[in-house]
Amino acid sequence: MEWKIKYHPLAEEELAKLDGSVRKIVLKGILKVSANPKPQNEGGYGKPLGNKLGNDLTGLLKIKYRDIGIRVVYKLLEDEKTHEMYILVISARADNEVYDLAGKRK
Fold first, then answer.
1. C-alpha distances in angstroms, 61 versus 19, 20, 24, 102?
2. Which domains are seen in the chain, by residue range?
3. From the centroid of its chain, how far is CA 2?
4. Distance, CA of 42 to CA of 90 (rounded, Å)
5. pLDDT at 88
6. What is the pLDDT of residues 53-100, one digit of tens each?
7. DSSP assignment of 34-69, as one string?
8. Distance separating alpha carbons of residues 64 and 54, to the nearest angstrom
9. Alpha carbons 105 and 5: distance in angstroms, whole number
């Protein structure tokens, strides 16, 4: 099954603002995860989020880039016809800002 990758408009801006080499790493990771973006407990690559500092992020998943300190938060939109990996936030982990933004864009 092929998952289509879509971006929240602000996530597209965040991606565009990244340094070229960092952007390349992030895009490579998103492409890898899109092969199977389901949660890890369902055999996928996604790391489920729950409650993060008062933000209820249940149903959202993340991709962690430890070496560059970036987090990508996404949700899955699927029905019989559509299978989309919708990227909500691409941001540094600093002070859990990425999770605050995800809570607002959810």
1. 24, 24, 21, 10
2. 4-105 (3.30.2310.20)
3. 17
4. 24
5. 96
6. 778 899 999 999 988 989 999 999 988 888 999 999 999 877 677 888
7. HTS-SBGGGTSSBEE--EETTEE-TTEEEEEETTTT
8. 20
9. 17
